[in-house]
Amino acid sequence: MVVYADVLFAINLAVDYLILWAVGKLARCKARWRWLLAGAAVMALAYCLVVLVLPFQAYYSLFSSLLMVMAGVTLAFRPHGVKVFLMLVGLCYACALVIGGTGMALYYCTSLPQIIRVLIGGSVGAFSIWLLLAASAGFFILIKLGQTLVRRHLVQRQLFLPVTVIWEDKTASFPALVDTGNSLRDPLSQAPVIIAEFDSVRDFLPENFRRAFAEKQESNLTGLLSGAEDTALYARLRMIPFESLGRRNGILVGFRPDLVEVQVEETKKKLIFSHVIVGISPQKLSASGAYHGLISPELAHAHA
């Protein structure tokens, strides 16, 4: 049987990239597509060398496969710590099994054995690119559905989280709702935004700010800025544009604290963030008073 090196490399590159992408999503490890592509290229190139160059590859295929995955994970994610590294390697093998299962499903549904031989590392014969795309699309859908279900499950189980804002010698603690619709970011630093009611963070604000919010003059940005010029708040002020139902081109006044702590009650972990903006809401966020802030799932489940 004739095996074309370029076809073998291209197929493995596509599958390995999909596996590394899925691992990043499942492990919530951020990686640029360039690094994912580089890791997939190393894995695909190593596989081609084993299959086409090295003799007796059947005797050490398991060992060579482990080295390929380890090299791809290291290059794509550059993990810190042995525990994280082993978790990513294990997820790679799990995703490979899911792709194989997707191929098995196509095999029994369509009687197309070619895709099975390719997905489990067999020889490449008269293989149709459409079959690879079908298996990849099925795997992509499974990962997206699984990610959505897990995220919903986490949000439902951790609806409210205690949040503590720290600035110099002052602290403010309040319960925050995990809000999937809160994706606000500071346009300058791209830092995520936690929304807090005015009463929850009023101790951080100078007197003129308190007066402006009390008199419903928080939209007077010029007055707020000029009144804060001689205070420690001035250098930390942020103006965050937002859109909400019934209101377009709104501006949310916020500030950058020293630290924000988020208590994840289910895992008993305390997440600490120094790159977060606290937006000040002049209105009550909960009519019943059940919570006094809004936090995005990105912060609520970071490294949890």
Can you offer a commentary on this structure?
- With 304 residues, this protein is an alpha+beta fold.
- It folds into two domains: 5-155; 158-300, no CATH class.
- Helix content is 49%, strand content 19%.
- It has ten helices and nine strands.
- The protein has helices spanning 5-27, 33-52, 61-77, 82-110, 113-119, 129-157, 198-201, 207-214, 221-227, 297-300, and strands spanning 160-167, 170-178, 193-197, 237-244, 247-255, 259-264, 269-273, 277-281, 293-295.
- A nine-stranded mixed β-sheet has the order 4-5-8-3-9-2-1-6-7.
- Strand 1 (160-167) and strand 2 (170-178) form a beta hairpin.
- Helix 1 (5-27) crosses helix 2, helix 1 runs parallel beside helix 6 and helix 4 (82-110) crosses helix 6.
- The chain starts with a helix and ends with a helix.
- The model is unreliable at 111-127 (pLDDT under 50).
Helix count from the secondary structure assignment: 10
| Overall number of structural domains | 2
Order of helices and strands: HHHHHHEEEHHHEEEEEEH
Terminus-to-terminus distance: 50 Å
Total number of β-strand segments?
A: 9
Q: Globular, elongated, flat, extended or rod-shaped: what is the shape?
A: elongated
Mean pLDDT: 75
- Identify the strand order in the major beta sheet: 4-5-8-3-9-2-1-6-7
Which structural class fits the helix and strand makeup?
Answer: alpha+beta
What Rg do the Cα atoms give? 26 Å
Helix content: 40-55%
Residue share in β-strands: 15-25%
Largest sheet: 9 strands, mixed
pLDDT under 50 segments (min length 5)? 111-127
Which quaternary structure do these chains form? single chain
